[in-house]
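agent: user wants the structure for Glycosyltransferase from Iris pallida. delegating to structure tool.
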Amino acid sequence: MDNLNGAKPHFVLVPLLAQGHMIPMVDMARLLASRGATVSFVTTPVNAARIKPVIDGASDAGLPIRFVEFKLPCEEAGVPEGCESFDLLPSVDFYKPLFEAIIMLREPLKLYLEQAKPRASCMVTDYCNWWTSEVARELNIARLVFHGPSCFYLLSSRNIHRSKVYERVADEHECVVVPGLPQRIEITRAQAPGWLADWKEMQGRVMEAEEAAAGVLINTFQELESEHIALYIESTKKMVLPIGPLSLYNKDAKSKATRGDKPSVEEHQILRWLDSMGPRSVLFVSFGSLVKMRPLQLIEVGCALEASGRPFVWVIKEAEKCAEVEKWMSEGFEERTRARSLVITGWAPQVVILSHRAVGGFMTHCGWNSILEAISSGVPMITWPHFADQFLNERLVVEVLRIGVGVGIKIPVFHPEEDRVEVERGAIESAIASLMDGGEEGDERRTRARELGEKACKAMAEGGSSYGNMTLLIQFAMEQAHNGIAD
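agent: tool returned. relaying tokens verbatim.
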């Protein structure tokens, strides 16, 4: 714990209500509190219930974190009651209403900040929560933006937007070169249209709020993206602090297992199964909290896993395991793969699994949290992007860092209406063989992944780059208090 002389900083963290956005900010809250800062973490009743073990653990450890629960106005915004996170919504039709419900938290947040003791030194808010910029300005509180995605994605998106490169191509599937990068990276408008591209007004507000922010925090580390971080700082002219991988705050098995939600299978059962497998022999397959595969594609994945002959852990969402999938699994798949498979329906403790010595590869949707967790464990990846930042993250993993193999997906798929196969079993099986075997190329890929994992751990340890940046963050907040912006 840091010895904080003088005013003790009070951080107020306002995440977006989405699992991939909340999880790293919960880690940030605990990390700040462990270093002596007071933290208020804004959430809602349903989301607080999902992270109850984390809340209880913070309380037991005596960490100065207040989990502040605001009632989300679901009914007023037209959101189904209890659907307080994007992964809980029954369809994408409710995405915009949920955003509108979150914006309605403006007044409760302002009231909390007006009454908070000690007064907030600094707000750290998800970049999507543009409305917090207005609150910060009205109450004269310094505001920092937190970005969950990679700096490579942030820089690429910024350069694409500013150069208007997409305006020079008529076909959304035509490749363009991303301007201003150290490497030649090609992408299509369909693969990387820009977050919130369909909601121009909101996109504009998000960008304005970021320009007004005092600085930017990114869940990455200097040694992973040094060139891109330098270019991003040059472009934004802001204080930019890489403070990750935040997942590495979780060092013991219990804290790893309780990140995000209650696991569907007990941690000790998973560990016992993994303990029975050889080192680096298991492929872990999981596609995040939002991606929902249709039955035909899910079955195609299962067929490829069976044909690969390798041990695997496969996470299937409750919403994916329909009667058709269950029928297919019961008609031989379960029996034929029983000796080498662990199928988890629901939420899985991903960091627990990735950090186990038996795991040698990870098939992922390329969400940045998942990529960072794999990198932190030194695990190479099979990349299967679907939407948002994921295609650019794939380019970073496969083409820049060279620690991944793509399945060959070209067309983004968010929530497919049709039950069709986007990637056939042969391509999936080929990617598995390339990653898990791969000869000399595979050995080099595994070596690079392992070296990055070691660098990630050093970055978060005392004396490391991210540790130092967290110190700078705490000093920044203390200066706000000292200068009278906070009491």
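agent: one observation worth passing along. The chain is about 45% helix and 15% strand.
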